[in-house]
Every structure is written in structure tokens, then in C-alpha cells.
Amino acid sequence: MNIYDFTVKDATGQDVSMKEYQGKVLLIVNTATGCGLTPQYAGLQELYDTYKDQGFEILDFPCNQFANQAPGSDDEIKSFCETRFGVTFKIFHKIDVNGDNADPLFNFLKKEQGGMLGSNIKWNFTKFLVNKHGQVVKRFAPTDVPEKIENDIKKLLAE
């Protein structure tokens, strides 16, 4: 099993097969618009601008599970990200990442890369790096800034 076995909803409610991302390096992130870490959007966009033409994608999944820091609708969140941070990478439907209603993709990501903090996601901006074969290769903590991930992205793009 890999991430290509999943279908998720985009910010407009349309189904998106993860197969659309086959052969690409992915950074999958649970985000929030009202978090102290929200400025990471700028660094994420910088990574995207630098590597998108080499087969890199960022998949943004807003989540309101942590201190209600993503309270807006999908449209409001998308508008905020585009206006405030110039985000051009894909923003998906707001989801839960933990608990009974956790999105199946995030259950898979957590299972594949439990990380040193255990399997549950502890906060906004937890990041999962996926190689071109759909395998989850690394998990980054919320406080790991996007710049810290760049070398790992470059290595995977070169494979």
C-alpha cells in the first residue's frame, strides 16, 4: 500500500485521486491559518516555487483540531493563504488528522512514519515527505521550518 491508494477532497469538495501525484516528490502538511506557525506558509511557498518544475508538490490539508486555529470555511482558508502568503500550491478540504474522524490518508501517513513523538499528530504544520514511488520517507515536527526540509527534497528529486 502507498499514498496512491487514497482519494481526498480538494477545497471545492471534488474528489482527487492521489494517483495524480505519481512520480512526484510530495510534502503533505496539516496547516492552520491562526497558529503561531502560520508564517511557515511563506517558506513552504518558497520551496514550492523553487522545486515545482522539478516534480515537487506541496499538499496542504487545513485542520481545526488544535486550539481551533483553522476556524474558517475552505474558501476562507484558501483566500487567506493566497492573499496573505501568495500560496499557489494545492489546498485541500479541511480535515481531522487524529481521532475517530481522522482522514484515512493521515492515518496512513502516521502509521508509516510514527516519528519520535508517537503516531498521533501533536500540532499544526506536521509535515510528511513522500518519494516518487508514493512511500512516506520522513516526518517533520511542526517546528521544523520549511528551509530545514530542502536538502531532503533535493535528494528525493535527484533519485
TrEMBL record:
Gene3D superfamilies: Glutaredoxin. The keyword Kinase does not apply. Residues 1-158 form the Thioredoxin domain. The keyword Oxidoreductase applies. Keywords: Oxidoreductase, Peroxidase. SUPFAM superfamilies: Thioredoxin-like. GO terms for biological process: cellular response to oxidative stress. Belongs to the glutathione peroxidase family. This is Glutathione peroxidase. It comes from Acetobacterium wieringae. The gene is gpx1.
